[in-house]
């Protein structure tokens, strides 16, 4: 697949204290990729995304031209593939070996599918103002499908703290044990550092989430690595400057006036192959069929509807009535014919 047109506008929909959004912000800053931001409220509604016909409720969302990418795993994969490094974008070291790529991927799985982020979220101090806001609590009940329970949350904290310490111990005694600066022993931070650091950085930055002095006392290499990462991001941010903030109205105008990021799809590329794709075969789908698409782990009540453009083992793409293409990873998402109620597979 060809690289993206560097002139296409990149707009990141996010709110600054989203730990998932930080994965993307750090990547863009360390790579020196210019982008604009459309800041969002931490709870629904998000009319800026609704303007584009997007029901997906998770943050962040990234647009590159009229192609819009959901889920940080897919966003990072697309930025890496479609925006390969240039000589002026060399402050994020690439994974140079198969082993390095495997470590990078395993760290991603460990943080998200392996449950580290979930355990980190169970350490949020109950005194945080947002957690006391009834609107925020109701919003997160919609997001997770469960009602907040203060007693249950308190009971989970000791287990969560143990799991987070195990994650720190893993880094302390393996990848960082030889005194290297970065996870892959690269000259500068790599995507593997982002995949490993973000849940821990989130906790360290929240007063009261971890016992005072715990990280520095028990995991000094991890503490020093987090501080180095902070310094590297701060240096990169100073180089590239703050992103321009745009309103939802301006973002909508810019996106709908832009070209496609993945032009091969516009020219008819991409497959919807019933013989090779079991979900397509199961539902008897064809290119152009109206489908609905949603994440299966959280925010699953918010479904997007559009015409099926392409699907393979890694990605599903639909075009919405508003004229944008939504890209979602297959892992952690489901699609089926629009309006059809199908039991969980």
Automatic annotation (TrEMBL):
<dbReference type="InterPro" id="IPR058268">
    <property type="entry name" value="DUF7962"/>
</dbReference>
<dbReference type="Pfam" id="PF25907">
    <property type="entry name" value="DUF7962"/>
</dbReference>
<protein>
    <recommendedName>
        <fullName>GST N-terminal domain-containing protein</fullName>
    </recommendedName>
</protein>
<dbReference type="InterPro" id="IPR036249">
    <property type="entry name" value="Thioredoxin-like_sf"/>
</dbReference>
<feature type="domain" description="GST N-terminal">
    <location>
        <begin position="12"/>
        <end position="85"/>
    </location>
</feature>
<feature type="domain" description="DUF7962">
    <location>
        <begin position="119"/>
        <end position="237"/>
    </location>
</feature>
<dbReference type="InterPro" id="IPR036282">
    <property type="entry name" value="Glutathione-S-Trfase_C_sf"/>
</dbReference>
<dbReference type="Pfam" id="PF13417">
    <property type="entry name" value="GST_N_3"/>
</dbReference>
<dbReference type="InterPro" id="IPR004045">
    <property type="entry name" value="Glutathione_S-Trfase_N"/>
</dbReference>
